[in-house]
Amino acid sequence: MRVKDVKKVVLAYSGGLDTSVILKWLQTTYQCEVVTFTADLGQGEELGPARDKALLLGIKPENIFIDDLRETFVKDFVFPMFRANALYEGMYLLGTSIARPLIAQRQIEIAEMVGADAVAHGATGKGNDQVRFEIGYYALKPDVKVIAPWREWDLTSRTALIAFAEQHQIPIAKDKRGEAPFSVDANLLHSSSEGKILEEPWDAADEMVWQRTISPTDAPDKVTEITIEFEHGDAVGINGERLSPATLLTKLNALGKENGIGRLDLVENRFVGMKSRGCYETPGGTILYVAHRAMESITLDREACHLKDSLMPRYAEIIYNGFWFSPERRMLQALIDESQKSVTGTVRLKLYKGNTIVSGRKSPNSLYSMKHVTFEDDQGAYDQFDAQGFIKLNALRLRLGAMAGRKGGAL
Amino acid sequence: MRVKDVKKVVLAYSGGLDTSVILKWLQTTYQCEVVTFTADLGQGEELGPARDKALLLGIKPENIFIDDLRETFVKDFVFPMFRANALYEGMYLLGTSIARPLIAQRQIEIAEMVGADAVAHGATGKGNDQVRFEIGYYALKPDVKVIAPWREWDLTSRTALIAFAEQHQIPIAKDKRGEAPFSVDANLLHSSSEGKILEEPWDAADEMVWQRTISPTDAPDKVTEITIEFEHGDAVGINGERLSPATLLTKLNALGKENGIGRLDLVENRFVGMKSRGCYETPGGTILYVAHRAMESITLDREACHLKDSLMPRYAEIIYNGFWFSPERRMLQALIDESQKSVTGTVRLKLYKGNTIVSGRKSPNSLYSMKHVTFEDDQGAYDQFDAQGFIKLNALRLRLGAMAGRKGGAL
Amino acid sequence: MRVKDVKKVVLAYSGGLDTSVILKWLQTTYQCEVVTFTADLGQGEELGPARDKALLLGIKPENIFIDDLRETFVKDFVFPMFRANALYEGMYLLGTSIARPLIAQRQIEIAEMVGADAVAHGATGKGNDQVRFEIGYYALKPDVKVIAPWREWDLTSRTALIAFAEQHQIPIAKDKRGEAPFSVDANLLHSSSEGKILEEPWDAADEMVWQRTISPTDAPDKVTEITIEFEHGDAVGINGERLSPATLLTKLNALGKENGIGRLDLVENRFVGMKSRGCYETPGGTILYVAHRAMESITLDREACHLKDSLMPRYAEIIYNGFWFSPERRMLQALIDESQKSVTGTVRLKLYKGNTIVSGRKSPNSLYSMKHVTFEDDQGAYDQFDAQGFIKLNALRLRLGAMAGRKGGAL
Amino acid sequence: MRVKDVKKVVLAYSGGLDTSVILKWLQTTYQCEVVTFTADLGQGEELGPARDKALLLGIKPENIFIDDLRETFVKDFVFPMFRANALYEGMYLLGTSIARPLIAQRQIEIAEMVGADAVAHGATGKGNDQVRFEIGYYALKPDVKVIAPWREWDLTSRTALIAFAEQHQIPIAKDKRGEAPFSVDANLLHSSSEGKILEEPWDAADEMVWQRTISPTDAPDKVTEITIEFEHGDAVGINGERLSPATLLTKLNALGKENGIGRLDLVENRFVGMKSRGCYETPGGTILYVAHRAMESITLDREACHLKDSLMPRYAEIIYNGFWFSPERRMLQALIDESQKSVTGTVRLKLYKGNTIVSGRKSPNSLYSMKHVTFEDDQGAYDQFDAQGFIKLNALRLRLGAMAGRKGGAL
Questions:
Q1: Mind telling me how many Å the CA of D300 is from chain B's nearest CA?
Q2: In Å, how far is B82's CA from the nearest CA of chain D?
């Protein structure tokens, strides 16, 4: 079911071979005007070449959009998500998932600006990213036409793709002629690798897969101690120095990288129904996750903490599945943000060969009461007799059950 | 509200100074017969001295019960809990919490056997353990009388305690005269330290606090690779060698210890309403947790996994709060156990200086399908066109919302 | 994407005009052998004519399957679901949803028996039923070919359908020539009406829509009192008479019908992404729902009840969406069934003009304790002093919060 | 553990015999100044006599506080709760629970105003209300001293209470000398009856128990049709007439009462651990609940609705247990309120002999799309082919499971 009568399409364009082929393919297949959008989300690539290449491929200068979205990415997407301590399937910090809605959002903004009726992306038909992009598109512009070349074209082999590129004078870097041994996605939060040599889940990942971190075994044999400062649930500084969101995450990435922190080799469940194996590197995010939990540990009420924890898997699943722009994510975000008002203070960490170790936490809003918890005399702050009534009424239903023959909580 | 007319009491007796004082105090206060129960849960202490000391304090031989519960502990308590990947407040593997119900259960069994009408324990009035013991007692024997000396007596200072001991000829080891710098609880799953020098959450824990693990910085600078074999969700072997539950956990503890694995410095929320700081060591349990998640990653259906994950915080809270013997824990256990039928296979891990790194997983029941996930030609296993319909119907409600003016999932 | 090379297809065949047209269309389109499967799920129609019509349309006698599945339906599908008190979106008793997996299951059994490679159903492309059928098919026979004529053919108008029928000598009942004013689905649990004259949600449903119940206004102006007996969560008798599952539900349906009980006019959210309006009649099911809750109210532990309640929406959604045959439904069922062991006893109800009123409940397993709850002297069963400690420790975290400046549970 | 050194206490004072005895008992027991607080929450009693009686019992005029809190009650407590469709244990509209935090709040405000160090209430030691009052007190004023006479004094029989009243010249209404056959609590939302003649859950409630509604059997044999208008989740008018919150609820109560709507005979689980039986009347609230759900049915996104539904049991439990002033209630409220932005429009209802029947709903924000749902030709709004891909990818994990030998969603 291809869309029809496309007039102008905004393409998420990296400047690489694949999206350059897509660019040409869109022109030739749909006979439509192509607008390119290239974003810097901290993937670590120059954007200049993308502009040059777009020009070379015949895109009009006014149809080339290049944006540095790093601060927006961290401030409005990464940080809100980290307030939730989001982990998909108990492990994954959602580094790829969280970048997609921002790209979709900006693509639609550009489409509205330039009067485009369609958008296109370079995600494959088996992955989650197509879902994340397209859910975003539809939620923001319900009448948009969506083109997903990888689901539509017949360039299904590397050979066919290269042939198409040659036929259309698309420059091909030497190292792009062959097949990459695995596929990579990267942004300021993380880098992911999957496919090809990583497909067998029993085989250990080759060291060359890891690009953002050095191995714990290669990391320096000394402890690096840092502090992270938080305000209302967001990190605002490192070692007492106040930093913008993207600057802060960049610095944490450097710290994580050199200490071998943030690697994850995972088999996960995709929204489209299959399992896949990914190797993720989230150096700064891993440190941030540990620090944020520690910050909450002294500033968050128990039930607030437990309520958040009980909803976290659902929140993570929503983001993983691509529903950032949805009522349910917004509702959960309202709940989470409400909880972060007093999550302010400082956490001290030791970074060492893959480990992120909490060694201290303090806050002007601390709920930790030395007076109550102390093994020393608490001067009446806590009446131990209260515990008896507390226990007895908590046990009452179980006692009534046991008296009725249901011992040990039997049903 | 002290209980009255106690005839015979079963005391959870460690053989240490505190429970020896309790023993004497029970005799003098309640004028009742005292039965001692000492369990080996892998805390790493000899049980012989406990028997000698009980005899010395006048307990009749037939009133001294000493049990090796290590296999029961791991098989019927630790393993069922690990099937759930239980973490309290995102971090804590519940090492203390899970031991209490077994002690309570055995204490009540002995009480029934010897015709005792009361039970007593040595937990303080500020902690969680009193709740865990007593909820267990009441659930198993609803008419039992419960004595919690620390909530009742006036031996509230170390001096008073020592004086009472001396007055009653209770032997006092030299190093027990002074105050311990922190309080310790241990069993085969973990060791916890808290109180005194650990009370200030900004102060880093002193190295002497850690007793079950060497520091990551002191661990050998080489990777130890192991495999763990699972059947139906439980670990059954290491490196291909089949082991009993307690033997297996003992071996994992040794592996974890020497590789600096399993330390946790945490501020947590107690059921009795205050925050407390604990330093936990769960060397084998930490390895087991990571391995079990990896085993599930290829054998568990996505929604089964997500359902488990969404209920895990509640399950962990139930155990933390002391409700092991409750209908709600049994119901959740039924759900969890149902999920583990095919969680069988092998996980390969690298242990290195505090890190537990998954490097492979395989299973006869694997749901991971190379044919579907491959970047290579899948020969029709997966039709990429299906993704379009999948996305469009998943997006339909958001499109309808956007058409009604609620763009981007607005409410 | 039509399936190809179909050899033999099992069609869910009602004997009505639409599925007769499908039957013929399958023969002509796929040139394949057609096997018909007609089930009695209590929809209230004779099955004899279905056989005659199938024969008339050229189906070989050995390819005609007619089964009375009423007892299986109630025992293995309706009752397990009612143990959960399942309501979709707070209101809907899932009468259509719960019948689909049984039809799918039997269709696949027949396919395996006769060596068919395909199955077909008569559900439309906009509804939930196509999902429920097909999810069931795929879960039970992953390589099955699925044919959904309403999504495939071009008989999209009534005129075209009638023309096709005439062309192929399919008998057309007089009242089937025109368009029905709404569409109906029925089984022993319920009857649903939707579409056409019901599409405008502001318009009240016409009285002719309701077919299984008389109007509350027309019901007799006198109270009918009944008792329902339960064992382990399932109804087993009415007024002391033991009845088989289907007989019992049939009798409850009669009682509900004549007392105007069980009508629901609802706008609901379909799994395929749109809202729809349905008029449902579940006379017996409504009575059963109220009675089951009342039975649980005295036999179920509080936390068991709350845990069930918290999972009910998820369970109902799973069934509504068509995932009866799924790991997550099985896991939740294990939890629910575990809870029902003691849900045994008797509930007394008053039925009156649309109302189902609980007037008494009793059980040999009752957890209701007169001794504890009484306003009279309870002779020490409950110590009111315990409440003080209970409250104080429950309030402790809030007091600590308020002392830290967060009054009234502020964050 | 009685509190000590009370200087001034604010008593929640109804003017009835019991709280008058408490008033005197506080004076004599604590030798402290007593401040009375009497609130009109719509319980249906004159407040003038309470003032007279307080004066008679020696309370200084400046220590007598009488407030009409009806509008606050409905606007800030009842309406926020109804946004959540809160039902405790699937049935109970929380009429008593929701009034307690407001009383506690106002009592503490007065305590702060008059410089009182203590508060007192007349709730018994077995019920939930003591918890609700005291949790509120502590959360709002953590250092407050709480006096709960029913847990403390020895006036445990009616005879003793009357004797104390006579001894202290407290006037006793004739009908208060004997024991009431059951206990009543009432406010604008509901009336509850429990205890004494209601204690046996098998016995039907006597008709005299019901005070706020006529019996369905006595209600007029004609349908009353009304509309309710909503804005952002709150009811704002009836039959097109805009009404203040309390006026609106008062009018709904009258409509419910005369049509026999809102009775509930329930066995519920108390927070203090026992089951109790209550007879509740919530005439207006029952109508409001049904209408609000219907309003949401066309204005709320599916996942927003399901998320709310999945959290509702927890929200209801929080309120039932007395934690209105808690972080967790505030967080959930933020989520719920976020969802209500577009819940605006009109619902039409038929009231008839106990039934509240939805007969229409409309909204300027409706998400119901005739174009998509129609059985008629939808002119391309919905592509039925999309359903195939939707189903196939939703089924993929189950197919993979079945291929691995786990047919039918087996684990």
A1: 8
A2: 18
Q: Where are the beta strands (DSSP E) in B180-324?
A: 183-186, 191-194, 224-231, 234-238, 241-242, 263-269, 275-281
From A304, A328, A400, residue closest to D331, measured CB to CB: A304
Q: Look-up: residue for tokens 């009383």?
A: D103
Residue tagged 């709507």 (tokens): D261
* Unique residue bearing structure tokens 């149809």: A63
pLDDT the model gives residue B177: 82
Q: Which residue of chain C has the CA closest to B305?
A: C328
Query: What is the number of alpha carbons within 13 Å of residue A193 lying toward its C-beta?
Result: 20
**Max CA pair span of chain D:** 85
Annotated catalytic residue D206: no
pLDDT score of B165: 95
Does A366 sit within 8 Å of C404, measured CB to CB?
yes
Q: Which residues, other chains included, contact C54 with Cβ-Cβ below 8 Å and sequence gap of 6+?
A: C13, C15, C23, C36, C38, C64
Chain B residues near residue C1 by CB distance under 8 angstroms:
383, 385-386
Please state, in angstroms and rounded to a whole number, the distance separating the CA atoms of residues A95 and D55. 69
Using only the alpha carbons of chain D, give its radius of gyration.
Answer: 25
* pLDDT on residue D1: 64
The torsion region of residue C131 among left (phi > 0), alpha (psi -120 to 50) and beta comes to alpha
Active-site hit among B40, B70, B106, B129: B129
Proportion of chain C above pLDDT 70, given as a percent: 100
Rounded Cα gap, residues B195 and A89, in angstroms: 34
Active site residue C76: no
Domains of chain C, earliest start first: 8-70+97-176 (3.40.50.620), 183-299+342-362 (3.90.1260.10)
Instruction: Kindly indicate the confidence band of residue B1, based on its pLDDT and cuts at 50, 70 and 90.
Output: low
Contact A400 D326 (CB under 8 A): no
Dihedral of CA atoms B65, B67, B73, B77 in degrees, nearest 10, equals: -30
**Is the confidence at residue B67, as pLDDT, over 90?**
yes
Residue D178: what pLDDT? 82
Cross-strand partners of A357: A350
Contacts of A381 (CB under 8 A, 6+ apart): A369, A371, A372
Q: Is the dihedral of CA B371, B373, B375, B381 positive or negative?
A: positive
What is the number of alpha carbons within 13 Å of residue D277 lying toward its C-beta?
A: 28
Dihedral (CA of C38, C40, C45, C49) sign: positive
User: Among candidates C254, C225, C229, C249, which has minimal Cα distance to C351?
Assistant: C225
Rounded Cα gap, residues D314 and C302, in angstroms: 13
Q: Are A139 and B407 in contact (CB under 8 A)?
A: yes
In contact, A128 and B388? CB cutoff 8 Å: no
Check whether C2 has a pLDDT greater than 90. no
Strand locations in C14-92 (E): 33-40, 64-68
Q: Supply the ipTM of this predicted assembly.
A: 0.96
Which pLDDT band, with edges at 50, 70 and 90, does C1 fall under?
low
d(CA A79, CA A336): 12
pLDDT tens digits, one per residue of C340-383: 999 999 999 999 999 999 999 999 999 998 888 887 778 788 99
Tens digits of per-residue pLDDT, D298-339? 999 999 999 999 999 999 999 999 999 999 999 999 999 999
Per residue in B103-127, pLDDT tens? 999 999 999 999 999 999 999 999 9
Q: Are C345 and C366 in contact (CB under 8 A)?
A: yes
Look at A331 and D339 and tell me if their CB atoms are within 8 Å: yes
Q: A363, A345 in Cβ contact below 8 A? A: yes
Maximum CA pair distance of chain A? 85
- C129 included as an active-site residue: yes
Tell me if A82 sits within 8 A of A285, measured CB to CB. Answer: yes
